[in-house]
Amino acid sequence: MQEPVGAERADGSAVTVGALLPLTRPGWVEAGRHLLAGLELAVHDVNEAGGIAGRPLELVVRDTAADPQRAAAAVDELTLLGVAALAGEYHSVVARTAAARADALGVPFLCSSAVLDALTEQPTDWVARLAPPQSRGWRMYADFLLGAGRRRIAVAAQPSVYWASGTRILREHVTARGGSVVELDMTALTPSALCEELVENEANALLLLVGHPEPAVPIVQAVRRDQRLAEIMIGAPAGQPELAEWNTLLGGEGAAIPFLRYLPERFGPLGTRVETTLRERLTQAPSFVAFEGYDAITVLADLLRVHGADRRRIADAWPRIAVEGTRGLIQFTRTPGISVWQWAGAPIQVVERDPTELDRFRIL
Fold first, then answer.
1. Which of 300, 309, 316, 335 is the most buried (most CB within 10 A)?
2. Is this structure's pTM higher than 0.85?
3. Other CB atoms within 10 A of residue 319 CB
């Protein structure tokens, strides 16, 4: 278990926030690393500015490893340790379990990165979310595909509530506009067999609704090297190409694969400063996940300064918060069909890695 960030400053008066994130496989480790970097930097900045009414803020980190039951156990443990609130989690299915447990125990949870619409089964006042809901982002992505003339869409999918939800959103949105979506089960197909299915179905777009690096990387390699599929567009709405590992494993074959990311077209002063510092800490360009982590602590710190570590008062204050984050003004509202307090203004882009400069992203 990782020690609390800033433990060297800790004493009995410290205010603690629990952090949930994937730091070991099968979790998406690189996403977890970026999320942690954002959380840690924000804690550092809060403490440099005087902490929470003079008390240091500490982050107590727990690795979920993309395991829902491990996340539930972490929520139980952190609640008993007395954290004022919880933050983080990247994987939607894991965040859903963590949110349900936080709701049951009465501890505020600010979910930074998971997008699954049904984050909790019933409406709750204990949970808020920074990332846009999957339905909003994936409909925008579907519109992008249709606008690019990609109407015969195949999805290479693995079993998951998250992937199934994404497929349903795409199918409903695309078929209502005259397109088609065929689902190809990657538990039954090898990458080469997938290529045969794409040819047979005359697909002109393939979406990767699968884990990274396996089987996403071998799928991309197989499709890119099949001359029959030279004109097909590969897409990854869940954002696999965002992180540097994608570039390392695929090089040029991983370019021109559009994905969703949650950044503004231009940063303001705070975002610019945070981007520079995160780049130094990570020794690479920070992903949108790192900014989600920073913003989560920024929001919670504002609430803690006003309400202290009183969990009930923190949860009651979600709808009254108005905090300038790295990506804009953060305010939470009730959104139709979403069971948690939602930042409705989260920015969304469709981007791809530039084939001529792999470290650069083109906004599409």
1. 300
2. yes
3. 12
